[in-house]
Amino acid sequence: MVMMTYREAVQRALDEEMGRDANVIFFGEDVGKAGGVFKVTPGLYEKYGPVRVRDTPISENAIIGAGVGAAVMGLRPVVELMFADFAAVTLDQIINQAAKFRYMSGGQLKVPLTIRAAQGGGAGFASQHSQCCETWFMHSPGLKVAVPSNPADVLGLLKSAIRDDNPVVFLEHKVQYAEKGEVPEGEHLVPFGVASVLRSGKDVTMVATQRMVAVALAAADELAKDGITCEVIDPRTLVPLDMETILNSVKKTGRLVTVEEAPHIGGWGAEVATRVTDAGIWYLEGPVVRVTLEGAIIPFSQPLEDHVIPNKGRVVSAVRHALTV
Amino acid sequence: MIAAALPVDTRFHMLQRMLEIRHCEERIQELFLENVIRGTTHLCIGQEAVSVGMAATIDAPRGDTVTCTYRGHGHALALGLTLRSMMAEMMGKEAGCCKGKGGSMHLTDMSVGLIGTFAIVGAGLPVTNGAALAAQIRGNGAVSISIFGDGTPNIGAWHEAVNLAAVWKLPSIFLCENNLYGEYSPYETTAPVPNVADRAAAYNIPGVIVDGQDAEAVYAVVQEAVDRARAGHGPTLIEAKTYRYKGHSRTDPATYRPAGELEQWQARDPIHILAERMKADGQLNDQQFKQMDQQAQDAVQEATTWALAQPYPPVEAAFEDIWV
After folding, report:
1. Measuring CA to CA, which residue among A115, A156, A154 is closest to residue A136?
2. Closest Cα partner for B233 from B106, B131, B132, B309?
3. Where are the domains of chain B?
4. Buried b / exposed e across A165-191, counting CB within 10 Å, b at 16+?
5. pLDDT in tens, B279-300
6. Long-range contacts made by residues A97-100, C-beta under 8 angstroms, separation at least 24?
């Protein structure tokens, strides 16, 4: 094992895959010479050169479209959108083109494209640079969606994404870039659709992604003081979604709390909840409780932002609520 | 621009394909009115010269590719999509080029270099850049042509794509079919420049205007742009001045057009122009032209009858080809 940061894991995955396969190319706004605005991709331009690593104009439609076209022709482009919020500028290329090309062409085309973007709040970036956007893409068949919560998963999932023949939206949490974690030495691949169980428990199942994983684990520590044990599951990818692991846990605990850093309506927690009720309603001993941004938009002012993003206290309350109803 | 005469075989091929496109489009319209074909359709009758002039420059085995808009039947046929595959796709049949899942607005046939016809205005140009980028990286000399209408330069993706192609010197060719109307709106009511080609100046690339009714003239300017792109000199914007004889789509009777405009353009019909030139050069007589016209009609009818007899895809196919 080696210690590395979340951002170093992104860089290592790109480096390893570009070194392994000459078809892997990488481009986006300031990702080359500048090494990315989040300083995630330094050295790649110098190592792989200006043909394979390119800085683009600020043109999200052109960036994703070039990725789609190059992927259709057999390359494996990784493109960066910088802030995930900017995906809204180019939803046409992502949802109408990348996701549907294979389907509309009757299976003639494949689009091995990886779209990287930094999402998430907590850094004072306000409403248009802080959203968690995963559900925009979950609702579009043809796209896979990865939401890694730690450096090892960043490395293993990004490498898998680049090798995948489907278009993948790879969402990194920007506040986690500096977080350190243990990463296996040598080749490390994490398959899509396999959740990780980070803590075992018998009273409540908690499902959380990205920065909310640490929040859920902290809440579990707090609740353990009162003898309440929580099972904490990180699905790691939302499409495909490992329902088997979640259902097996709920079968054991009978209670489900989801923790997501996104608005309530239509969040991924709603999808998990409905699939648990579909396949495992008899396991449930109470209603599913969801912790979300509620109806809020991420605000600028720190007390407001801190208030809307789920924290340990809110998760502890949610678990206690789940156990009492 | 007066184009050099093409070899007689190429002229015959272009004329035959234009006749097939014309009859195919007319048959498609009839089948829509008979409710055999559903949804919508965007016919290119009157614009056939752009399709065959463009297609004559494409070398699909080399890796050349094309993207175009939903007014794409003519381009697809000109590139070599078969009439049977086209008609079956129009009808949603399993034997269609996209197994019936694409339909009129979504034609793909990679065997002839057609990446796709795009139903979203402006969506094809960024994708053409990607294909051109792949060619540039591989150094195989391939090019990618994106064809679009006169309404497209008013959408943001157009500017992003032309700009990127110019900055990266991609082997992309941007070919506008200016048929005077963006949907129902006359060109001059939606654009501040008299010609689409004028916009090339903003991206420091060549902007060329060509008579879109003259297949040989279209071929000449597109070939020049292709040669330029293959040589690594970057993209060209071409504007072919042309006209659609029908409305924008199935539901549009085109009543917004001034009286006499259609007839004025029909007097410069692309099929007529090439046929008359071949007659003047002693390559074609009236009898031969009638035969070619009849052959095209027969081929379209044969493809229609064949497609009608083909099965629909099994319903399970709705859930196939979403993922690799």
Report:
1. A115
2. B132
3. 8-310
4. ebbbbbbbbbbbbebebebeeeebebe
5. 999 999 999 999 999 999 999 9
6. A97/A64, A97/A65, A97/A68, A97/B118, A97/B120, A97/B123, A97/B127, A98/A64, A98/A67, A98/A68, A98/A71, A98/A142, A98/A143, A98/A167, A99/A140, A99/A141, A99/A142, A99/A143, A99/A167, A100/A142
pLDDT tens for A63-72 read 999 999 999 9
Confidence (pTM): 0.96
Distance in angstroms (rounded) separating the CA atoms of residues A250 and A285 = 10
What is the phi/psi pair of residue A236, to 5°? 65, -45
Architecture of domain B8-310: 3-Layer(aba) Sandwich (3.40)
- Between positions 121 and 160 of B, the ones with CB within 8 A of A are 122-123, 125-135, 137, 144, 156-157, 160
Q: Determine, yes or no, domain membership for A189.
A: no
A27 and A171 inside one domain: yes
Whether residue A105 and residue B322 make contact (CB cut-off 8 A), yes or no, is no
ipTM: 0.96
Q: Are residues A45 and A104 in the same domain?
A: yes
Which of A55, A64, A72, A73 to mutate to probe the B interface, most B CBs <10 Å?
A73
Shortest distance between the Cα of B89 and any Cα of chain A, in A, equals 10
- Evaluate whether residue A206 is within a structural domain: yes
- Search chain B and give the residue with CA nearest A94: B123
Q: Is the pLDDT of residue A325 over 90?
A: no
Q: Is the pLDDT of residue A37 over 60?
A: yes
**Residue whose tokens read 């893409």:** A137
Per the CB < 8 A criterion, the answer to whether A239 and A144 are in contact is: yes
Task: Tell me if B323 and A142 make a contact (CB, 8 A cut-off).
Answer: yes
Domain range for residue A227? 196-324
Judgement on whether residues A170 and A312 belong to the same structural domain of the protein: no
Residue in the structure block whose two tokens are 């052109």: A62
What length is written for chain B? 324
d(CA B317, CA B310): 16
Strand A144-146 to A230-234 pairing: unpaired
- Whichever domain contains A162, its CATH number is 3.40.50.970
Residue that has been written with the tokens 């100046």 in this structure: B201
Residues B178 and A80: their CA atoms lie apart, in Å, by 35
- State whether B130 and A96 contact (CB < 8 Å): no
Q: What pLDDT is stored for residue B3 in this prediction?
A: 62
Residue A102 lies in a domain: yes
